[in-house]
Amino acid sequence: MSDGMQWIVRFELPNGGPGPDTVASEDLAAEFDAVVVLLLRDHYCQVSRERATAYSEAFDEFAAEDVAVVGALPDTAERAGYWRRRYDLTYPVLADSSEGPAADAGAGADAGAATAMTDGTPRFDAFADIEVGVDTLPGIGVLDTRQQFPRLVHTEGGETLQECPGPEEALDAARDALGT
Q1: Which of 38, 91, 114, 174 is at 20 to 30 A from 74, Cα to Cα?
Q2: Alpha-carbon span 72 to 78, nearest angstrom
Q3: Phi, psi at residue 32, to the nearest 5°?
Q4: 74-107: b or e for each residue (b if 16 or more CB lie within 10 Å)?
Q5: Within a 13 Å sphere around the CA of 126, how many CA atoms are in the beta-carbon half?
Q6: How confident is the model over 18-75, as pLDDT tens digits?
Q7: Are residues 133 and 152 in contact, defined by beta-carbon separation less than 8 angstroms?
Q8: Residue 162 contacts residue 47 (beta carbons within 8 Å)
Q9: Can you tell me the distance from the alpha carbon of 11 to that of 125, in angstroms, rounded to the nearest whole number?
Q10: How many whole angstroms separate alpha carbon 37 and alpha carbon 155?
C-alpha cells in the first residue's frame, strides 16, 4: 500500500475450512496480532492451488509468529469447503463473493454494476479493499489486528499470476507491518 493509508477491514464470512462455520475478524484479532489474507482466484487457477497448499504447509510458522492465515475465494461456502477437502488445507477458507446472497438482495439498486473482473473472475465483497491493492490474483493482504479494528497495512500481488507472494514473503510482510 502506498502513502500510509490504512483501510479498516472487518468481516464475518462463511468458512469452508477447519474451524467454526463462520470466521470473524474480531475473533481472529482476539487471538492473533496480524492476519494474512490469501486471495485465491478460482478452482481453475493452478497458481492459486499451489499457493493454497504452500500456505497450509507453512501454517505452523505463521502461528508461531502470532499471525493467522485465512484463504478467501470469490465463491460459495460449498466451493470453499471443496478447496479445504481437496487440498487438505489447515486454515479457514472463507467464501467472499460480491455475487452472493447479499449482492442479490440489492440487485435492483446496483443493476449494471460490475461484479466480475474483465476476464470474468468474480470479485470479492468483504475483501474488496485488498483486491484493489493487488495487480492480479492470487494476492495477499496483511491486516494489523492489534488495534480496535483490523487495519489493512500491506497488499501484494504480481503483474502476473506467478508473482503472487509465497508464504515466506507473506510472513516477512507481516513481520515488517508489525515491526517485529
Answers
A1: 174
A2: 13
A3: -125, 155
A4: bbbbebbbbbbeebebbbbbbbbbbbbeeeeeee
A5: 22
A6: 889 999 999 999 999 999 999 999 878 899 999 999 999 999 999 999 999 999 999 9
A7: yes
A8: yes
A9: 10
A10: 9
